[in-house]
Amino acid sequence: MDSCVIFQTWNDSEAELVRGILESYGIPCRIRSDITHQVYPFTVDGLGEIRLEIPAEAAEEARRILQEHLNAGASGSLESFPDDH
To answer: Which among 48, 44, 78, 58 has a CA at the least distance from the CA of 3?
Structure first.
């Protein structure tokens, strides 16, 4: 099964929040990072970036869900959501 990155951040709490939203809609989500944030709670030149991966076939639905949550809660945008799969 192919996966794609749906969200990128440097904040553990934000990553967990987005994962919770997606999983509440039945979209499985995996958090990935190049370093362990519990051991190294900082970022250097992008090394601490956290990426949320979902099944590629759920990307369109996930973007719609996250945009709806942004629209309902604040005047945000999907700048953190990559368009490429």
So the answer is: 58
Using the Cα atoms of residue 32, residue 34, residue 36 and residue 41 in order, give the sign of their dihedral. Answer: negative
Q: What distance, in Å, lies between the first and last C-alpha atoms of the chain?
A: 13
The angle at the Cα of 50, spanning 82 to 59, to the nearest 5 degrees, equals: 35
Helices and strands: H and E segment counts in the chain: 2, 3
Domains of the chain, CATH where assigned: 3-73 (3.30.70.1530)
pTM: 0.72
Name the β-bridge partners of 73.
none
Q: What are phi and psi of 64, to 5 degrees?
A: -65, -45
Residues of the chain under the 70 pLDDT cut: 1, 35-47, 74-85
> How many angstroms separate the CA atoms of 3 and 1, rounded?
7
